[in-house]
Amino acid sequence: MPFSEIIRMALSSLGVQRLRSFLTMAGITIGVFSVIGVMTTVSALRGSIETGLSFLGSDVFQFSKWPSGIQVTGNNWDKYRKRRNISYAEEQRYRDLMEGWADVIRMAAWKGGGTAVYGVHHTTPNVQYGGTNEHYVTTNQWSIEAGRNFTADDVELGRPVVIIGQTLVQLLFPSESPLGKTIKVADHAYLVIGTFVAKGKAFGGDPDQIAVVPITRFLSDNGANNYSLNVATQAPSQLNYNETIDHAVTAMRIARGLRPGDENDFDLYSNESLIASFAKVADIVSEGAFVISAIALLAAGVGIMNIMLVSVTERTKEIGIRKSIGARKQSILVQFLLESLVLSLIGGLVGIVLGVVTGDGLALMLHAAIIFPWGWTAVALAVCSAIGIGFGLYPAIKAAALDPIDALRYE
Fold first, then answer.
1. How far apart are CA 236 and CA 234, in angstroms?
2. Which stretch of DSSP H or E encloses residue 378?
3. How far apart are CA 97 and CA 253, in angstroms?
4. Nearest to 343 by CA among 93, 72, 10, 65
5. Which residue of 21, 168, 312, 328 shows the fewest CB atoms closer than 10 Å?
6. Are the CB atoms for 107 and 229 separated by under 8 Å?
């Protein structure tokens, strides 16, 4: 029998029992959909988040009371909470100790949940309100759209000035320039001296809903003892980056008053550590999706085997007739294997389409880049093919091994 005729008969047999075929394919579809959907979302977010996390330069590292948020869990949160804040005086002492080694380029402290007000206009209580210095703009990849940046004098004298993001500009100044106007942020009055270029929303957040003031003014207005500073340092070059970090850790320990045997009560991180932390979370999510999908695909494979065994039983007489007029075992075997393979592959293709659409849809909602997971698609098709052949092999062998005389007598 020509191979094309075997394919035609296999497809025709599947079409006879449409509902049964659909329900069998649904199991494969669910399994593939879960893994492709998660992998598409994670892959899209991974690229965008890794880019967004690279706000520190390649030769910049940062000290903080807290590690990166990704590393903080319920089990160790209390440990970090009990740490002493990194004070402005400690930052100044650290700066002195680093003189001649590296430039301490930025310090910052943040207060979440502030509200900005100008006249009758006000924002939601989600303004990112913080204090920093004149280097924040360059180290965090911001640009000034209008007005000016902080100066060293603004920081040293603690002037009540503020630079705001475009969300605040739109909400507070819909029809006028914000420059030279006085606004209130968290009940403190500041003169607007500049506005940031818009960055756009990302991952459900709004980085443009920001208001920054000189760090000295921020600590004066909100209580220096209530906030811990993040201190960023720039090594002279990548060649002595590690050596600079070693010296910086020693300098920070001295500034914090730690004795030789004391454990560090601060954390150090860089672009690489932030990206590595996120990668760990992404890998855990991916592994979880893989395990769930593997269970679903295993159940779907068992369903394919069951439905093919039922099909062999129902078509026993048909197989006997075909054998009696010359059909070979190989033709019977190939036909049933093809039926099982087609069921699995169609279910897999539908799952891939649904997974990519859902995953990229979530990525769009979170303002991440759209991708197509070619690697995972190839893996999914290979796994579906293996399931179709592996779980369809026993029913196909059973069909091919039927005795034609017994098969013709079957009722």
1. 6
2. helix 374-400
3. 11
4. 10
5. 328
6. yes
Q: Can you give the C-alpha Rg of the chain in angstroms?
A: 32
CB 256 within 8 A of CB 90: yes
Q: How confident is the model at residue 90 (pLDDT cuts 50, 70, 90)?
A: very high
- Residue 320 one-letter amino acid: G
Q: What is the pLDDT of residue 166?
A: 93
Res 189: pLDDT: 95
Distance CA 18, CA 9 (A): 15
- Cβ-Cβ contacts under 8 Å for 68 (sequence gap 6 or more): 267, 269, 273, 274, 277
More confident residue, 19 or 215: 215
Number of neighbouring beta carbons within 10 Å of residue 334 = 19
With contact defined as beta carbons under 8 Å apart, do 9 and 311 qualify? Answer: no
| Alpha-carbon distances of 319 from 139, 188, 325, 395, rounded to whole Å | 74, 86, 10, 13
Lowest mean pLDDT among 7-16, 151-160, 248-257: 7-16
Angle formed at CA 139 by CA 133 and CA 140, multiple of 5 degrees: 95
Is the C-alpha dihedral spanning 379, 385, 388, 389 positive or negative? negative
Which of 5-9, 333-337, 342-346, 390-394 shows the lowest per-residue confidence on average (mean pLDDT)?
A: 5-9
Of the ranges 66-75, 197-206, 278-287, 335-344, which one carries the lowest mean pLDDT score? 66-75
